[in-house]
Amino acid sequence: MTTFTQNHELSLGGNYEQVAQKFRPIFSKIAEGILEREKNRILPTEQIEWLKHAGFGAVRVPVQYGGEGLSQRQLFQLLIELATADSNIVQALRGHFAFVEDRLVVHRDSSQEIWFKRFVQGDLVGNAWTEIGKVEIGDVVTRVSQNQQGKLVVNGEKFYSTGTIFADWIDLFAYDETLDQHVIAAVSTHDQGILITDDWDGFGQKTTGSGSLKINQVPIERDHILSFEQRFKYQTAYYQVFHLATLAGIALSAVETFSEEVRQRTRIFSHGNADLVRHDPQVLQVIGKASAQAFASQSIALTAAETLDTAYLSHFQNNDILDQKANNAAELESSQGQVVIADLVLDLTTSLFNALGASASTTAKQLDRFWRNARVVSSHNPLIYKEKVIGDWLVNQTPLPFVWQIGNSPLAKHISA
Questions:
Q1: Residue 375: Cβ within 10 Å count
Q2: Sign of the CA dihedral with 200 first, then 204, 206, and 207 last
Q3: Torsion-angle region of 133 (φ positive above 0: left; ψ -120 to 50: alpha; else: beta)
Q4: Closest listed residue to residue 167, CA positions, set 204, 196, 134
Q5: Where are the alpha helices (H) located in 125-270, listed in sequence order?
Q6: What range(s) does the Acyl-CoA dehydrogenase/oxidase N-terminal domain occupy (predicted)?
Q7: How far is the C-alpha of 320 from the C-alpha of 314, rounded, in Å?
Q8: Residues 6 or more apart from 225 whose CB is under 8 A from it?
């Protein structure tokens, strides 16, 4: 049997209920203000601080370094609970947990005790990978270079800088001119020269802090420049399962909220089936189907999360074939999960309105938030391309795309406005 490298602390799982009970009161408190934040587009800065000070960002950190040592399945179960309270916060923390995962993987070959200590102290990491404007696909305008004094500095602009406005660090994708390679620059948000703007104007997931970022002559130390080629292999699957957990939480919250609306509703239709809506068999059928769809969404998300645990574990075994197989499985199952869960959640968040009347559309209730948020989350990583790569893998064994980019087409400059 393959053995693990000695003295490496792995995060393979903890006492889930014990950890969850620590955070559930915070989740409940977060849920209490969701309507006000949705209606008035108030960023959950205070709510994320609650989680930060409670150690939420360190639940995957090994126990030996002060974390909870949760498995990825347990982490995503916890994130589903949080997404049920506020799906925006889960998406805002997506970049943080991906960076933590990368540090867990790198820990096999070099100690990440410094980063683990930061996470345990409450430091959060935001995400900033996508170039802003009409940058041609493949180009990275954000650069690490040397200034006139010979010091390393970072310059650039990003959009979709999700969670960065709440964070202490930025997981910044850049091109290092001094090393001639793509890198992750771990930049402190507390440094001068950083401008974070909350200008995300999407109709859903409004408060994720996904706006623009400008970095101007920000100093950086060499040990905070990380090779992108060494990024953890299952990162695209990991990012996708985050969306699956977010969607599952949206689904569970929608079913819970609409069930309460049905329970409290006193107005009935003359051609309905009962004296109270809560006893109308057709209305109960709507709720029942949506509940089954939410259950399936959660189950699929957690099953996909288990493949991430397998990929994490395989990294610590001396078997390249096993490692590649585990990473393929994680990428494939996260993609399959995306295709199915997106349809399930978009359908149920629409169909649930059939259980109520036109009054359900009032902005005071914000019941449309479930569909809006699910629609925006489902628009990441286009479904049609996921379906294509799944089919191409199954039929032709075409390698799955573990890393991909978005940007302006090279042909765009030849197209007149």
A1: 18
A2: negative
A3: left
A4: 196
A5: 235-264
A6: 29-99
A7: 9
A8: 144, 152, 176, 179, 183, 184, 185, 186
3-state class (DSSP) for residue 145: strand
pLDDT one-digit tens code per residue, 127-185:
999 998 888 888 899 999 999 899 999 999 999 999 999 999 999 999 999 999 999 99
Distance between CA atoms of residues 404 and 394, nearest Å: 20
Rounded mean pLDDT, 74-83: 98
- Residue carrying structure tokens 């559309």: 361
What the chain holds in terms of domains, given with CATH numbers, is: 16-123 (1.10.540.10), 130-230 (2.40.110.10), 235-396 (1.20.140.10)
**Rounded Cα gap, residues 158 and 155, in angstroms:** 10
Cβ pair 403, 240 in contact under 8 A: no
- Look at the block and give the residue holding tokens 């040397």: 146
CA–CA separation, 90 and 71 (whole Å): 17
State the pLDDT confidence band at 8, using cuts at 50, 70 and 90. low
Q: How confident is the model at residue 416 (pLDDT cuts 50, 70, 90)?
A: low
pLDDT of residue 409: 82
C-alpha closest to that of 43 among 100, 84, 108, 88: 88
Give residue 51's pLDDT: 98
Structure tokens at 112: 């990440």
Q: Which two tokens stand for residue 168?
A: 């202490």
Residues β-bridged to residue 155: 143
The C-alpha torsion from 370 through 298 and 401 to 161, rounded to 10°, is: 40
Please report the pLDDT score of residue 136 as a whole number: 86
User: Tell me, what's the pLDDT at 379?
Assistant: 93
pLDDT at 352: 98
Amino acid at 7: N
84: phi then psi, degrees, rounded to nearest 5:
-65, -30
Task: Compute CA 328 distance to the chain's CA centroid, rounded to the nearest angstrom.
Answer: 20
Q: Name the residue with tokens 């994490």.
A: 312
Cα torsion at 185, 327, 336, 239 (round to 10°)?
-20
pTM of the model: 0.95
Nearest to 277 by CA among 173, 388, 391, 354: 354
The letter for the amino acid at 36 is: E
- Cα–Cα nearest to 352, from 369, 364, 340: 369
- The residue to which tokens 């997931």 are assigned: 205
